[in-house]
Design brief:
about 350 residues; alpha/beta; Rossmann fold; 6-stranded antiparallel β-sheet; 12 helices; about 40% helix; binds adenosine-5'-triphosphate; binds magnesium ion; nucleotide-binding
């Protein structure tokens, strides 16, 4: 896919701006608070129907009642005109080529993009919930029909947990168990598949971009391991007494996690800050290898990296259309002959948006 332009109205610090983009690297340069992240957030909003930063209305310019975004893009030779409108009364409209969409998941099936921001390192450092969200996002990007499976699983899980708290009838709960284990097994399989692919690709990025001899691996840590849904069901049943005494479902895909290992050791426990950042970038960039023509949205990806890593990263990024922010003007490195960004579209942002 390719993003051609965006028209931004009253979004964050932007009042009214139009940006045109190139098919290669779009390097967004500007001082702190000049609107670099906000521009990426606007693109992200168009492709996901929500922000990576929090509530929709927080993105409305302080002096305005609404924001509007209009993004022109092309996916598989089809033009998409994406329109978003959000106002302070929580009226939210998203339209593709003039037609209102009913579900945000419609966007996932069209726009394939890879997103990195400084918080992505939390993927390694923080709670399993973040890693599950990351993984499930990749599963749904590759298999959009899985969105429904996740929401049905969530619904069934809530009903089962409510039942566990109020009753002690093991035969009735079987209705939920059958459904949960079928949906759960499907999610388990898809996660396993994505982890296996990502593990191989992340290692490639890690060693190519970062000239790193260390080994990077992703290891799935499911709470139930099974080779078919019947086995998944049986495994789930083993913890039924525990589930009743705790009042919630103690095993299932909602308790899964994955680990990032560097040279077979858990990154969370042993890696340095720099290694964690490199590993997180590698895992995220690895997702770009899952789709034919993704767009890369990378916020502040170069900071803390030495100039040789930046050079390799720029080379990798240049294979795709990308939107990359930097508080530093990388052309200084170009003058030193370290990297080539000649074909990039450099967008300078002034403080006044
Ligand atoms: N709803 C809003 N209305 C108006 N301004 C806002 C709103 N939300 C955030 N801002 C402001 O927008 C400005 C641009 O923020 P942004 O995060 O895009 O900057 P940046 O260029 O990425 O900076 P940095 O280099 O520090 O990451 C900030 O000064 C911020 O306070
Ligand atoms: Mg920023």
């Amino acid at each position: 896919m390719k993003i051609k332009s965006i028209h931004i109205e009253n979004f964050r610090g932007y009042k009214d701006r139009f940006f045109e983009f190139k098919d290669k690297m779009n390097l967004i340069v500007g001082n702190n608070a000049s609107g670099k992240t906000s521009l990426l957030e606007a693109l992200y909003f168009c492709m996901c129907g929500k922000s990576f930063k929090g509530r929709d209305i927080d993105a409305i310019n302080f002096d305005s009642f609404y924001f509007k975004l209009e993004m022109l893009s092309e996916v598989d030779d089809i033009e998409y005109n994406l329109f978003c409108y959000v106002d302070r009364n929580s009226d939210k409209r998203i339209m593709i080529n003039g037609k209102k969409i009913n579900r945000l998941s419609e966007l996932i099936s069209i726009f394939k993009f890879v997103f990195f921001d400084p918080d992505t390192t939390e993927l390694i450092k923080r709670q399993p919930k973040l890693r599950r969200r990351f993984l499930d996002m990749e599963v749904t990007k590759l298999y959009p029909y899985m969105t429904k499976v996740y929401s049905e699983y969530q619904k069934a899980l809530l009903s089962r947990n409510a039942f566990l708290k109020s009753y002690d009838k093991k035969d009735i709960i079987d209705l939920y168990d059958t459904q949960i284990s079928q949906l759960g097994f499907l999610i388990f399989q898809k996660r396993q598949e994505i982890i296996n692919k990502l593990s191989i690709e992340a290692q490639k990025v890690f060693s190519y971009v970062f000239e790193n001899k260390s080994m990077l691996e992703l290891k799935y840590m499911p709470s139930i391991v099974a080779s078919d849904k019947e086995e998944y069901y049986k495994e789930m049943k083993k913890s039924i007494d525990r589930d009743f005494s705790f009042g919630y479902t103690t095993k299932g895909v909602h308790r899964d996690d994955f680990e990032i290992l560097i040279d077979k050791k858990s990154a969370i426990n042993f890696a340095s800050e720099g290694q964690i950042k490199l590993a997180a970038i590698s895992v995220v960039l690895a997702t770009s290898l899952l789709y034919p023509e993704p767009v890369l949205i990378l916020d502040d990806v170069f900071s803390e990296l030495d100039k040789f890593k930046i050079r390799n990263l720029v080379k990798f990024i240049s294979q795709y259309q990308s939107f990359v922010t930097s508080a530093e003007d990388l052309r200084a490195f170009e003058r030193e002959g370290i990297l080539e960004i000649g074909s990039a579209n450099v967008i300078f942002l002034e403080k006044n948006l």
